[in-house]
Amino acid sequence: MKILMIAPQPFMEERGAPFAIYHHIKALLHMGHTVDLITYHIGKPVDLPGLRIFRTPAIPGIHEVKVGPSMAKFPLDLLVFLLALWRLCVARYDCIHTHEEAGAMGVLLSGIFGRKHLYYMHSDLSQQIVSSDFTHNPFLIRCVEAIQKWIVRKAHAIIAICPDIEVTAHTMTDKTPIYMIENSAVDETLPAPALDDILQTRQELELGTGPVLLYTGTLESYQGIDLLIHSIPAVHKHFPAANYVLVGGQAAQIERLSAMAKELGVHHTIRFVGQRPLDEMPKYMALADILLSPRSKGTNTPLKLYTYLHSGKPILATEIYSQTQVLSPETSLLVPPTAEGLAEGAIRLLSDPQWAKELGENGRLFAQEHYCWRVFLKKSTCVQEEFAADLLEMAA
């Protein structure tokens, strides 16, 4: 199939949705399909044979796009829609695939050009605008709820990225085929870091010889980084040599969190390293004694959890539904989503390294069986074969 995919994201960037889109594209190419991707002007180049990227014109003053909804997305999404419309006018595609809010574009373009539309539902858009603190206006939330239902009901098929999203989609329609494929594809081709590189990074970050607690991901409010920082004083009393490394986030977010850490007197124990390339992630994982996911709200499964599990390192995570869809007491230490809970969890793991090691190994074995590229590709292939069969029926 020749696929037009619409992804209103900075592609590629080291964060959840772009990672997921990358792996879905990689799976489609592995099956022998070709993909033309419509996306923002922002993002790093990606070299995948069979993928062509069409970027929107740059908008002066917009050099980055925050995670979740933002005012910058309105003009960017308009350009994405116009670019997708142009591509459909000048080239023939077998179907349209869309991500996030581009589902609305997919419904319109599918109706205009008579192409089947596959919607990748990464989140409930109405929940996303609330959890990201974009708006709490009841009227706007109801409008987004209506748009989300319209997308789900009008799409020809839906891929939900976690059990909660699958359940949500089923509440909106009983006609559209809905498939669940977790965003669990981990890039297993990344080479293991050299010991010299790990030691050099430890020295550069001035981590000493004490334990390292690592967080990777965005620094949005729902990630619970505020709770994590407020948990550090209690941990530091028991383990003064422990250090926290936080990978990810934008400059303004790091500045705010650094000021918070300074007020609490723990800024010297935290290293904010900002966004780092994907190929550096194994190095940071190797540094860690504990991996952290202090998420405070939301129901979408954090993509980082799949990578965490594969690492074989012990995981400390808050016990909220977004995380327990993947994690269990057998594969991680789950604690209440509070500063006290995170502090007690860190102290437990640091106090019993043998138990922590066993927990990490349990997680690794579980991920090898349930969350790996092989499983992701198998599920993706089954869905695309069914979708392609429906295309042939429609053509006949």
In CATH's first tier, which class of the largest domain applies?
Alpha Beta
What would you call the structural class? alpha/beta
The total tally of domains equals 2
The CATH superfamily of the largest domain is: Glycogen Phosphorylase B
Shape label: globular
Give the N-to-C terminal Cα separation.
Answer: 16 Å
Characterise the protein shown here.
Residues 20-182 form the Glycosyltransferase subfamily 4-like N-terminal domain. GO terms for molecular function: glycosyltransferase activity; hydrolase activity. It holds the Pfam family Glycos_transf_1. By secondary structure, the chain is α/β, with parallel strands linked by helices. The protein folds into 2 domains: 2-185 and 372-395, Glycogen Phosphorylase B (Rossmann fold, 3-Layer(aba) Sandwich); 195-370, Glycogen Phosphorylase B (Rossmann fold, 3-Layer(aba) Sandwich). Helix content is 48%, strand content 15%. A 7-stranded parallel sheet has the order 3-2-1-4-5-6-7, with helices on both faces. The chain has a 6-stranded parallel sheet with strand order 10-9-8-11-12-13, with helices on both faces. The relative contact order is 0.11.
